[in-house]
Sequence to fold (260 residues):
Amino acid sequence: MSSKPIGIFDSGVGGLSIWKEIHQLLPMESTCYLSDSKNAPYGPKGKEAIIALSVKNTEWLIDQDCKLIVVACNTATTNAIDTLRANYDIPFIGIEPAIKPAALQSKSKAIGILATKGTLSSQLFHKTSQLYSSELIVIEQEGNGIVELIEAGGLHSPEMLQLLQSYLKPMLDANIDCLVLGCTHYHFLTPILKELLPSHVKIIDSGEAVARQTKAVLEANQLLNNKRVAGTNTIYTNGEKTVVSSLLSSKVASVQKLVF
Ligand code: DGL
Fold:
């Protein structure tokens, strides 16, 4: 049993979509979120650079006395989680594009995956996607520019709308009925995507599953907080605090600027 915080990191504000799910499921847990916005986006960086940044983030969270680390970034998970698990004696939870649930739900047998270049080019993603390539058409699309716009506060900008329209077109032409959001930043696009997609297309992301897995791993390692008081939640960012606040509807977290 431990009242230490759960550590969570992402290349920026995208992982706040995961933080929300974890906080909702485990309100008694304290959380410490690191938004490495200064180095966003990770997607176009090579594997070695993504590993180096993930190691730096992990060490910072370990220094904050975190008991478990959630890698709330598909790009960091698919490129770096093996290295992290091999080097640090702390449980890690990762996130990967939810291809399997999409494959199980698809009736048209065509699904779209929107993710970063770093995720789509990773070995881990390739291995999973190959498992399904014989039974369905998988349209992979790099979401270039989306993370940058969200980090700059341009979630609802005309540029975003244009980018999304161009990225969805080949998917809609292929008659997809499931769209997998393979980047934690993309969760915040859900209302816009619902406007752009026909109503039968399901939008699938992995936030809830990551929260459930976090709970299961805490339980298995006897690390759940057994104190009956709500945890404290701090979001640290080396970017703009206003961008964090604009995406956080909850008032239970404090936002701190970090030189990192
Ligand atoms: N939120 C990260 C992900 O899930 C964004 C990656 C990036 O910084 O390019 O992949």
Summary: The chain has two domains: 6-95+207-257, 99-204. The first strand starts at residue 6 and ends at 10. The domain at 6-95+207-257 is CATH 3.40.50.1860 (Rossmann fold).
